[in-house]
Amino acid sequence: MSIRRPSMAERRSSMTQEGSLRPPVVPHLAGLEKPLPETVPEACDVVIAGTGLTESILAAALAWQGSSVLHIDANDYYGDTTATLTIDQLKTWVERVNKGEIKGYQDAVLYIPRGNEFKSKDFGIDLTPKVLFCKSDLLSLLVTARVYKYLEFLPLSSFHFFENDNFEKMTSTKQDIFTNQTLSLATKRSLMKFIKFSLDWESHPDVWSPYKDASIETFLQEQFKLEKAQIFELIFSIGLCNNNETHTPEALARIKRYLISYDVYGNFPVMYSKYGGAGEISQGFCRSAAVAGATYKLNTKLVSFDPKTKIAQLSDNSCVKINEQIIISPSQAPTDSKFLSKQNYEIQRLTVIVKKDCTQWFHDNESAAVVVFPSGSLESNNKQAVQAIIMGEGSGITAKGTCVWYMSTIETGKRGRDDLEAALKAMEGSILRESSDLDTQDYFDNANGMLNSVKLGQSFKDFVPKEKIQYILKFYYIQFTSIPHAGVVNPNLYRKNSVHVEDDVDAPDRGVIYSSLPSSEISYDGIVTASKILYEKVVGSDDDFFDVDFEDDDDEGSIANNLESAIAEDDDDDEHIVEPGAAPVEFAEDMEL
Amino acid sequence: MSRPITAVKLVLLGEAAVGKSSLVLRFVSNDFQENKEPTIGAAFLTQRCVIGDQTIKFEIWDTAGQERFASLAPMYYRNAQCALVVYDVTKPASFIKARHWVKELHEQASPNIIIALVGNKCDLVEGEGNEQNRKVAKEEGEQLAQEENLVFFETSAKSGLNVKEVFIALGSKIPSNVQLNIQNDSATSANACNC
């Protein structure tokens, strides 16, 4: 393993006094300390190829740790497999996938009807759409690393699930359970009992361990006597599981994730970053890495690496001596690479942009919703759930009066595509019923003026809309990954290919470490873990992963345990996000410049 | 708090070594009106200044070197309300680059971004016998500024000449209700303005 280098803070402060405060971290100020070179460095500690979210977090962590990082990307944009793309970029991407130039993807289809008034830049389509749980490792990291300052987060509280050709409203909170008139008293009691249990399920193995290899459905039926409707809601909407056969402990962890995320920052369990999801967050971490001194170069890929001389040859004809490791996203593997691990898991995605605002699906002033189609709920008799993230114009990724529907499934082959098309049809039918102007009386429930989608779906079940949905874009593709569905990230996925150093001397990827392609997970869970595992491969341990004391420019100095200002309007001091229980931030009032 | 505070994102652009960072460091480290000591966070530099009846909190984004290989992310330009395009009055190439950055801003940034064109390193051309060091005439800068509707100053980060004037000029062009302004001009949402 490598020798520990001094961290950024240690290296930059020439006057580390004993017994005094830890030196504050001074970021790299380009052009001030020394003129920047015009060419890529001749040597560095780590080369990372691909600016996807996992790789970007890794780059930032390494740069702040003190490693010299050269971060390249074959594309002319940031984000790689987690990029947010304009329509024009999407067109190029599809062409390249179908020419086999982007590994890990296939069968990309893009349909854009002629004659719409929109511009390419009006849209930012995520290749890997995700939502952020309010209590999650990535959220904590965004705060610790101060990357949240580059971003804007918006709340998402609407979770719908589709059943009996209907969109059902979720009963996820205690309040919902109490006020829901369709639930029997006995069901309410069972649900409450289960929710209480799930918040602390790990400490009650007596309850669940007999079911550890059984499905969550069986567990909920037998142990909590819940009915199918509630079980499906728990498994698919709250747990966001792919099917009802998910094993009990895995599903319980997923259900708990939702419940503990609720009410952390408000009445919503998840958030999303405005102007694009993972693509935007990747850019934030890349900027953070650059501030800590990492060098960025887009339009550049690895041609080959020689593990004996430790020299990497790049497509811009430069050669870089790598002191430590080279980490590559499988999507950017060099031509004729031989050591790419098997990408055994398939994800199918269908993304459409419709010319409708779809506000019917959003809660109050929000601009996004999650819609889940559980097993067996679609015309195609789907085995796996179809999960959808809906984003309206307020999300900053789509033009006024339009909406993006991101759908995905882990179903494979033709079935997967059929399931996605069936889900699209169901959503289309639903939005046409709900947005039709036939009789507005039926659309609002008198009590609170809010849309009652249950009532609506029932009363208009056979309603055949005259109107047709106008598509601005329809985009389908298959993605592969080495990360098992709903599985934990396994360190073995990132094995270094050093065993192959002696053989296959012609392979351009001997001795490189491959990261992984994005998983099927709809949340960001697993990404920080992956970055940490890769970090450990370079540094030897993940003890000092983002162990940096940043100064805060907060005048008032108070740190509130809320994120309200960052997700709502800017109320003049937006730097008050701190994870509950996080180590106190050190403030340095005076700075020698 | 007595006055409303308006947070304003300001981005720095210009060829390497024209003194972008020095200019900002001079601005934030000078004792400037009622300001507090400058601080450097991990994200960007901030500096408050009082202009008229409002307090502007500049959040100053350095390129962090990402412009070197034309690798600035869209995030850099997003919601930037002000930009400082800096060139070196002794380096003609840096003035050509400044034109490029102004064009880039028109393409990438929001349409009503306020841009200041700044010819830095004036100290090198002042004083007897030093006038021959000047390679970009003041008129050239003024002309570009007029064509593109930019705020224009010649500065010296070294002596401090005109440094705070640039920021005051930019700040005084910020509408006092920035939130309203943003709602009007962008296809984004009603609760934007976390700039």
Please provide a written account of the structure.
Chain A has helices at residues 8-12, 53-65, 87-98, 137-144, 174-179, 185-198, 205-208, 216-224, 228-238, 248-261, 278-291, 413-435, 453-459, 527-539, 564-567; strands at 43-49, 69-72, 84-85, 105-111, 125-126, 132-133, 153-156, 158-163, 166-169, 270-273, 295-297, 302-306, 311-314, 319-328, 345-354, 368-373, 386-392, 403-409, 471-481, 513-514. With 593 residues, chain A is of the alpha+beta class. Chain A folds into 4 domains: 8-82 and 277-341 and 486-550, FAD/NAD(P)-binding domain; 103-122 and 131-159 and 345-481, Guanine Nucleotide Dissociation Inhibitor, domain 2, CATH 3.30.519; 185-261, Guanine Nucleotide Dissociation Inhibitor, domain 1 (Orthogonal Bundle); 561-593, no CATH class. In chain A, the strands form 4 sheets. In chain A, strands 4-19-15-18-17-16-8-9 form an 8-stranded mixed beta sheet, sandwiched between helices. In chain A, strand 12 (302-306) and strand 13 form a beta hairpin. In chain A, helix 2 (53-65) runs parallel beside helix 11, helix 2 (53-65) crosses helix 14 and helix 8 packs across helix 9 (228-238). Chain A is globular, with a radius of gyration of 25 Å. Mean pLDDT of chain A is 81; it is low at 11-35, 437-464 and 553-593. By secondary structure, chain B is of the alpha/beta class. Chain B has helices spanning 20-29, 74-77, 92-108, 138-148, 163-172, 178-185, and strands at 5-14, 39-40, 45-51, 54-61, 82-88, 114-120, 151-154. Chain B is globular and about 50 Å long. Residues 31-40 and 178-195 of chain B have low confidence and may be disordered. At the A-B interface, helix 11 and strand 11 of A face strand 1, helix 1, strand 2, strand 3 and helix 2 of B. Chain B: InterPro entries: P-loop_NTPase, Small_GTP-bd, Small_GTPase.
